[in-house]
Amino acid sequence: MATAAATSAVGVGTGQALEQLEVNHDFARSLPKIELHAHLSGSISRKCLHEVWTMKKAEDPNLAVEDPLLAIPPDKVDYDLETFFPLFSSYIYKLCSDKPSIIHTTRSVLQDFQSDNVVYLELRTTPRAIPDQNISKKVYVEAILACLTEHNNLPTNTLSAKLILSVDRRNTLQQAEEVIDLALAYRDAGIVGVDLCGDPTKGPITTFTSAFARAKRAGLKITLHFAEAPTSASDEELWELLRWAPDRIGHVIHVNDEVKREIVRRGVGVELCLSCNVHARMITGGFGEHHFGWWWKGGSVGVALSTDDVGVFCSPLSNEYVLAATHFGLSRADVKELCLGAVEIIFGEEAEKERLREVYRSWAGW
Ligand SMILES: CNc1ncnc2c1ncn2[C@@H]1O[C@H](COP(=O)(O)O)[C@@H](O)[C@H]1O
């Protein structure tokens, strides 16, 4: 294995081999990055939520929603799965509750990824109706897509953003079918796939088998939250999810050797979220014990380091690269290999893949 990130700093352009150059924060920040597992509502920074709260409070002094800076204190990242999921329905959705707040927060999320030098983003969100605002799920999806298009069309932006629509494990089959319908209807407007997410204690996932089969038949790409918690990692559930023929899977924590072998045999891409898994105590141990180590060297499948919910866990993608490098001894050459592997598992088209390969080939920062 190449030189660990913690070794002494050596600069770019010193003529040293890629293996010997350090993966530090400056390098990771300027590295063009690919983000494939980011939930829109979980990616909103506390600062941005605070802005929304301030605007709403000015409009309505009786607003019965606590200031985000108090409700989600700035340094708090230790949300476990029991405290994490209620954060959305009982808090964040109360702030992102109308068109202006949805547009403001989506723009802010895109800007945050752009500022961290993410060059390709597949953002995901669960279509959400807000009847008292006349917002249907269709209107919600259109509003998000409009923000993505606006961002992508600005020539100074280097980030290209696509959308994945999520089915929540709490959904009914009919609600899941609605998500698939929307994904198909807005395919040409930037939707590249569908996801299964939500509280892993909810189920059963067989409710959605026919909906995901239809998505697959129609050519939509599929990503699934996979073995995220012991309750969602029975053999029965994992083999059922694999029968849906996912193109990628996320988290991939509680998997036995047989399932791992099958994932590798099929070449399913994995989306790994170090900070989320450590802070939410979804794995035993710290960063050094994260299964990234296994997938990176033992997996031979594309691995996309991802943030999951940067608004909650507060670790931008550049920091995830530093963490991976620090705890698993990645050199700059390893990071290049990792990035090129992520290119191959994006849901975007071949032309987008070629653009990204070229970005990495020609990047002067190696
Ligand atoms: C531990 N990580 C996770 N595991 C599973 N589902 C997650 C998640 N993080 C976020 N979500 C899902 O994303 C929704 C919020 O974003 P959107 O409103 O869709 O943009 C949450 O309600 C949850 O269902």
TrEMBL record:
InterPro entries: A_deaminase_dom, Ado/ade_deaminase, Metal_Hydrolase. Transmembrane segments: none annotated. CDD domains: ADA_AMPD. Signal peptide: none annotated. SUPFAM superfamilies: Metallo-dependent hydrolases. It comes from the Eukaryota. Residues 32-358 form the Adenosine deaminase domain. It catalyses: N(6)-methyl-AMP + H2O + H(+) = IMP + methylamine. The keyword ATP-binding does not apply. Pfam families: A_deaminase. Keywords: Hydrolase, Metal-binding, Nucleotide metabolism, Zinc. Monomer. This is Metallo-dependent hydrolase.
